[in-house]
User: Fold these one by one.
Assistant:
Number 1:
Amino acid sequence: MRRSVKRPSAALSVIGSLLVLGLAAGCSAGKPGGTSSDNSAGGDGGGGTGGDNAGGAAGGGGDTGGAVGGGEGGGSTTPTPIPTAPTGLPAIAISAGLNVIASVGMTPPSPSVVPVPQMTGGTIVDKDAAIRLGKALFWDAQAGSDGTIACASCHFHAGADSRTLQTRHPGNDLTFQTSDDAVGSSGVFSMSFGSISTNLNDPVDVCASVTPGNPAQAVLFGAGQRLVTGRNAPPAIGAVFFLDNFYDGRASHNFNGQDPLGAGTAIAGNASLASQSLGPPISGIEMSCAGRQWNGPNSLGAKLVPRTPLAKQVVASDDSVLGPLSNFPDPGLKCGFADRLCTYADLIAAAFGTGALSGQAAADAYVNGFASIWGQAVQAYEATLVPDRTPYDLGLLTPAQVNGLNRFRGKCGSCHVEPEFSDATVRVITANGGPTTPQQVQPSDPLLAPQPADQGYHNIGVTPTVEDRGRKASPGGTYHTAAPGEVDFNDGAFKTPGLRNLKLTAPYMHNGRIPTIDGVLNFYDGAGMVLNAEIDAEVLDAGVSADFFADVRDFLANGLTDCRVEHETAPFDHPALEIPNGPSLPARGASGDGAVCP
């Protein structure tokens, strides 16, 4: 097969008009059939780390109206003002984009800087305040129905999920230890949502055990076992550069403030990560008891708006974003009030304003529009997670890594376009005419007509096509469709991931089946590759010969690792977080674990 519209080289000019705040892959939604879900941006095309728990609760973001109910109230019933912002806070450092500086013997791609895509529209009035709000929301375990699961619970290790305990999913055959098993993320227990707690100090929702509930999940994982997503969690770090997110691309760049799919009136454009972030928090697999809603009474908004952000988690006093609000050594955030800590209402007011409302009226407005607030704020935060100080960016590649890069370019560069290392990005797709311009894929039979397929998605033979239809089965639909009776190259295709910090984000591929970078390189040499009718023929020639193997591996493992990500220095520092079935993360400040990075 060959394309009449090829993916562009890295020499494409910068698309300077892109405007997006950028949200990364915070969390995701459940996969069709109820046994898997999508954990953030990323994809498969070319051996990357993306992951996704497709389908499930794509909606659930509608505004149900009404006031904050019961003991959850959003403040005093007396209309007292909500402060518009804590004052005197320093500005937050934000990366300009991905830098590319040539090492000796290396031919650099152009442009030298790819800017971070910026969100258009939206309702944020203070970007720095929105970043603070977004970081608090992303890391806050109170968002989970059980009070233990945050978006970060599946994106805590270089933006990905490194857990190995209770992460296996049995695949479509619902039988463990068979060929279609996947490695996903450990989520919530099988529960049905009843109500939020009326005790503001208790983050646990009132839920009932479901037996059998979702038959596949409850029977497979049993009582006392957390549900598991059916796709691998891809990195949230760097995900702002993708046009659409999730492995199947269903998280639209048009943000509707209600769900990931983006249908209807857009609140913001270039906001796929805002869309993506609306899946996991109400997913009955990932973070929520089944049936919880985003907005209105008895919702996630009603739960969080009156609560203290990070009320059970310590924030380092030198946290690069939340440090000025830290209540260290105690948990929570403080906004300068003598008699209380911050509430989410305070942080929302600072980021989005009050719309001339005050007190309970303002709190009610936040509750009724919480999905939109959450999405925009999480995007604002995740847009700061730009891994732009790798040896590749800094011109510090070793001669062996330069050799590996040059070989990589010849074998893998048409899909993993530099410097984002993906052809599914805002820049690349825009330069190729936008998402409405298809890639034309020529079937292997030259007598057959080329077929249109969506840019940035490829079937690379990780699994039989029927095992996971990927882009073709996206709940949000596709931009292009093959003619009736022709090979559909969207079928079984997944988004091409970026490759930065690859050594930190195992396991690999959309189903997490490959545990090592060596395994990925061996896969492209044919080990375990499934020769689907829809396979992208370019992967058939992507194998790396033995004489280049070590250098390519060195480039991928070390030349693309940002030291700040590895050692959790700013902007990759974070609050403390206990990970279910995983580690206990201490609060990290701007200096991370103390390592000195270039």
Note: The two ends are 43 Å apart (CA to CA).
Number 2:
Amino acid sequence: MFLRASYASRPVHAPTIVAAALGVFAVLLAVLLPYSGGVHLFDWDELIFAEAAREMNERGDWLQVYVNYQPFYEKPPAFFWLQALAFRVLGVGELAARLPSAVFTAATGALLFVVGSYALAPGFGLLWALLFGLGLFPGIYGKLGLIDPTFNFFVLLALFALFATDEAKRQERNDPQLPKLTLVPGGYAGIAALALGFAVLVKGPLALAITLTVFALYKLLVPRPALKPAGVALFLAATLAVAGSWFALESLAHGPAFVVEFVRYQLRITGTDDGHPGFVGFHTLLFVVGCFPFSVFAVRGALGRALYRERRLQILALLLFGVVLGLFELVVRTKLIHYSSLLYVPGAFFAARVLWRVWRGNFGLHWGEVVGLAAVALLLAVPLFVLPYFGTHPTELLALLNDPIARSYVALPVPWGLETYLPGALLVGGTLGGLFFSVRGRRPVAVAVLLATGGLLANAIWVVFVARVDAYVSAPQVQFIARVGSAPLAFYGPLTYLPPFYARRAVANPHTPEQLQQLLAREPNLWVVTRAAEAPALPNLAVHERAGAYLLLGPTEKKARRDQPVAATP
């Protein structure tokens, strides 16, 4: 196992680090932004959040959250504030909805560069930032309009600022000296309180649970320098003041309804599977496979010995990884892929500890890491090659499918050319290239190839596969909304948040034939979008158009000509 050499003789200059961090931010943003606006938003979360931000601008009310013109109690409003600002600057659309995620994923990379520079060396910080930002799942999540990248940034900023508060009190010559924040009220502790309070406003009290638990455990293991009760009380008071500001304003303006419903929702997703059950080990498997190429190096980096600040940061990273993994594997029964995305940062830290030393020539890849890298690449390669094959041979896929809904999706003629094999070829070629250069002793080239493969693979999967999922699922529905225009509209079937965002108005979403019949009684000229396998048999509705799994139902042809501005399709 490995130890860390001393870098006290290599001072870290704050202005240089800040300038380099801005460069890291710009590079990662340039990787994340391309193609982000070329795909429709997806149900549920992306559309819920974007619609909440759109209605926030439309209503001019930045305190209450509404979705489909109904109160929405599940999340605080801070992330929607960011999206609403993006809509004001760029206009309402996919790119603006996803911009905060790209910005804060890139900002997380810049933060890791700064922390890594003061923990070990700027080269280590750069590698940590790139492993995270160019990893497969981080690269894809940075393109989705989800809360998690923003939430994770502020949780990490709070946690690292608390760590810096502790480190600033040390007088060890073996660690780079931290800059003094004389112009920031409260210094690093002030930054931590502000960041943690804002994290609560982004997603709720989960930020407090994770950050305070991790840092409390850290202080049990690293008790010196001791915490001062007055300082702890002041930090908690400042955090709660920031976190409680919106809750207080909302309660004063509109009563306690949101706070009550918000607490009920948090208890519900903790005690139930919330409709998304999974198995214990779900998030561990996702980390191993989804954090290609760095996940396989995390074990040696987590267990390898270290000294000084690197050792203390290793302890903090181990605690963060363990708390997040334990929380979402054992406590929260809802198993959604993005819930455990906070694992990516400590995982990338462990991998950076290994690959930085590989880069510097201290040692090579372990045979277990070579086998693991090949195994993860193989697991990823199977779907990346199977999907294009069935896309170009849909009749063979239809022969394997018995579910009528799945068959109706596949029936839509979406083009699958030879270029759809590119992600799989890129994965295999990049993995083999990295292993080849490692065997030949060109270790820096091997690490660079693996980094490039991760970043390019995330973009290739987005362009090839995410865009085609959109073509099967979201694009037909958006097409029908545009065709109907301002006529009365409803979406029949499962709960969906796509209609209000793309129709820019309230859209009914009946789930039963009785509910739909009641709507038709009030709106005889109603147009209905539904999946073909769930289409209701009602005499006053006729099929006007079909696109894959979806039907556009409307008034009978005679009634449409007489009363309806939307022309029927022959």
Note: The longest helix spans residues 443-484.
Number 3:
Amino acid sequence: MRRTDIRNVAVIAHVDHGKTTLVDGFLEAANFFGRKTDHAEAFMDMNPLERERGITILAKNVSFVWRGVKINLIDTPGHADFAGEVERVLSMAEGCFLLVDAAEGPLPQTKFVLRKALQRGLKPLVVINKIDRPDARPVEVLDSVFQLFIDLHATDAQLDFPVIYASGRQRISTVDLAVPGTDLRPLLDAMIDMLPGPEVEPEKPFQVQITNILYDQFVGRVGIGRIMRGTLRTRQPVVSIKRDGSLKTAQAKQVQVFDGLKRVDVNEVAAGDIVAIVGLDNVEIGDTIADVEHPEALPPVPIDEPTIGMQFNVNDSPMAGLEGQYPTSRQIRERLQLAAEADVALRVAIPEGSADNFQVMGRGTLHLGILIENMRREGYEFSVGAPEVLYHEVDGKTLEPWEEAVADVPDHLAGRVIELLGARCAQMTHMETHKGRTVIHFDVPSRGLIGMRTKVLTATQGEAVFTHRFVEYREVAGYIPRRTRGAMCATAGGAVTQYALLNLFDRGEFFVEPGDEIYDGQVIGEHCKEGDIAVNASKMKELTNVRSSNKEATVRIKAKRDMSLEDAMEWIEPDELVEVTPKNFRIRKRELNETVRKRTRKATATVPK
């Protein structure tokens, strides 16, 4: 039977296509905030990092009532690096909103999330969002969406999708472009009328699969999932079935449902609703919670493999332990294992014979960068190596990850982007123009995309929109250069002096400024030429009894280059590390001693024939 009093709906789209803003509009229309209209924009993005970066990182649940029907809405991330969040929560929904920007059209992550939704048999509702943009082209975008459905081998029923035109910022929607919208009611009505309720089996034994975990400081882990069949009651004995098939008995001490963003205690929850279960010790994402007398496991949620790996090390620099609260290998290992349990797309491996190094694998540099930033803010101190792609060996051939990249640039700058990506073994597959902008599609190895976003934005004066997503593993492409300029390495520790930087200003760009504490082996800037150079950035001016009143009155030192954590991770070479502490992050050489580095370079140098 199918329930008609509940709708479980996932909101999926490419990054920056307006998912969270549209969810704000839903909550306002459903009187979620009461009479208050001064709530924060992107209300669902409550994580500090989400607000700072303006992106959704974690999938979240919210519920409200419309026309007497309870709607469980799942807001998902739009960035390809957090696709694991999307994959695991789609199993809680029967229908989905596919949001597409009315100007940009379908982009790489649009194709990814739609493929996953169609594979799970979700009923799609296409929303052409941002119709208020000056460069909006909703009719053309709708044609592109339909072609995308065909390319993904959608069924006839899925191809017959309803379409709503909307503007999340203006809080309007309409089913006909010729009839201007006045509010979001057509979209909310479509959620009830055009998307199905959950198919349930209330008479069968209880069964739910955990697809999300919350941490409560009072009750510990809270497992969240949609009840597939049966009914769950408070204090009911249950059994937890792990991925390896092992069983562990437990008790549902509290049974909760979502009311808005809050969890509300109830006595029982029937099949079809999304439930939060308290009392499951060591519950993990993917576990099946079932009736004690009928311990039947649900098939695990398929999650794509990670493509990028980084080495996490215990910080061994001269400044180790001065700024961090948790610097030891045991503390770092426990935190990484906790992150891997909460994020199904993350893998942590400990190399044999090494207690201070950890191999962490994820979907991209942003995925790993968010983990590093969270650990840094929690007080952890460590160092990380350069990101490296993960290779596969199949039938004696070495395969590497390839991605689909899309660059949306002004017409006169398209050549620069094609030249940049061409040098990274990219293959242009499609190009189209509309209203002064060119959209270029590439197939490119993941190796070639490390650090590419910054280069594209620099080459286009910040006017480019550059996105990419993983496609598949293919044969290894040719040689791809990483960094064409060397590093400026400090040869002595101490405080950076203005006198030293003044004598080095023509050697390159600085990462430090006068007064910063440095140490021997730290990278203090980027050399203007190929190859590393050793410099003394803490050199003091020799004092004499000869003075000039205006000799240094007009000294100007170039401002240091402000680099984000992701910029530093993508800038470094394999022989360098990023030292991460709660207060700073510094770039350093793996081997701090300059003499040892020279000896190593000579030993590994190839002699030309």
Note: Residues 502 and 557 are 6 Å apart (CA to CA).
